[in-house]
Amino acid sequence: MSESSNRPELYERAFEQAIREHKDLRLHAERGREFLFVARELLTIPEDVDRVSRKLRDNRVDNERGRDFAGMVRLVLPRNPDEIPNIVRLLRDPRQWPGERVPFVQPHHAVVGHGGNMHGHPGQPPHVGTPLADPPKGSEGRGKGVVVGILDTGISKTAATDHPAWLGGAFVPKPDEVDAAYAHDDVFALEGGHGTFVAGVVRQAAPGVRFDPEKVLDPSGLGTEEDFARALSSFDEQVHIVNVSLGCFTQDDVASEPIRRALLKLPKSVVVVASAGNQGTNRPSWPAALPDVVGVAAIAEELDGTRAPACYSNFGHWVKACAIGNRTSTYLKGRWVLPGDPAVDVYDRWAYWLGTSFAAPHVAGRIAETMTTHGLSATAARDKLLTGAPFFPGYGILVD
Predict the structure, then answer these.
(1) Tens digit of pLDDT for each residue in 246-271?
(2) Where is region (Disordered) located (predicted)?
(3) Is 109 an active-site residue?
């Protein structure tokens, strides 16, 4: 990709424009406390819904019950589309509930892909990549029999024919889980190809794995907690590992309750790996910061082979592992065009991208490879891989 000093700024502006144009999403832009939320929607839990609804009416806030999901109750506030953060702040105030337990409430948060960065931090679209050599002969046993669920933008409908050595036979394409990829014609959307790229990273570590892709994000890299919960419950076969190269910030950094509840429905034998996010902060990103999730930060590998925590990577005590975040992987044919940038770059099925989105699937693939190499369950392979390796404080165990 053509190098441009203002490309990160243009990429961020394009994300912000996508949010402004989204009819249902809003950005709470308080510096250092940013999060995206669904307009008009408030989430609570069944045991609290009556008290919350009554308190809203007492404060002249009209509300009606919407469709439940992931054990959550959705209240729709038709007259207050943009006031959800202020209403949540009011309802979380103990002074509103003298002598009572404060009920659980939260916005309906949006989730974003972690291939690009938002809110004033470095990030850029992929670079044109050099094709990788085919997997080494005999490597197909690494990860054989392991199924990795991928929650992302989907996988390209041409992935198996574009990359027969890497993705052929790895998954069964489903029409509703195809990576739409393009904004129009052959011009990529902001995170078009993200899921296809992630799948290739997993298979580089474990060429024998199969995938069950489920779509959470649109081609701009935007989805919701409801999309996450729906996708997580839609796997066609029993998965051993789930890769989640996306996440969300939340109001007051409170754990996302719908995401937490959705993950609790998975068998305990399933390992979930999630990217930590690319905002260069220690704010928790969900689901990566949940206790039973392997949150993955990014390490940058320079041309001389030196490694250090990537400047864009999120970090913190909640991060359990790290891996190289700048990688070449499977992609699609098409063009990248950013508004305000005269450069037009043409892709031929390969890309080079950086982000925690691409550190996480390497860890997922290495867990799959460890399962088959040592005859271990997913949880035992995870524990083996995350024990005794080099450790970066705040970034976790390094997984090569």
Answers:
(1) 999 999 999 999 999 999 999 999 99
(2) 117-142
(3) no
- Round the average pLDDT of the chain to a whole number and report it: 94
**Catalytic-role residue among 53, 220, 245, 357:** 357
Active site annotation includes 194: yes
- Whether residue 221 sits in one domain with residue 85: no
The residue segments making up the domain with residue 250 are 112-398
- Whether 97 and 126 share a structural domain: no
Question: Distance between CA atoms of 216 and 227, rounded to whole angstroms?
Answer: 5
Instruction: Name residues whose C-beta falls within 8 Å of residue 116's C-beta, 6 or more positions apart in sequence.
Output: 11, 12, 15, 123, 124, 125, 190, 191, 221, 278, 355
**Residues contacting 235, CB < 8 A, separation 6+:** 149, 212, 214
Catalytic residue among 108, 109, 119, 152: 152
- 304, 390: one domain: yes
Residue 152 annotated among the catalytic residues of the structure: yes
End position of a domain, from candidates 111, 135, 151: 111
The domain that contains 295 carries what CATH number? 3.40.50.200
How far from 207 is each of 157, 171, 238, CA to CA, in Å? 19, 12, 19
- Which of 91, 111, 131 is where one domain is finished? 111
- In the chain, how many domains are there? 2
Based on the domain organization, do 356 and 313 belong to the same domain?
yes
Judge if 257 and 368 occupy the same domain: yes
Catalytic entry in 108, 114, 194, 362: 194
Please give the average per-residue pLDDT across 127-134, as a whole number: 96
101 with 127, same domain: the answer is: no
Could you tell me the pTM of the whole model?
A: 0.95
What does the pLDDT average to over 140-148? 96
For residue 16, CA distances in Å to 28, 113, 154, 185, 255 come to 12, 14, 22, 22, 24
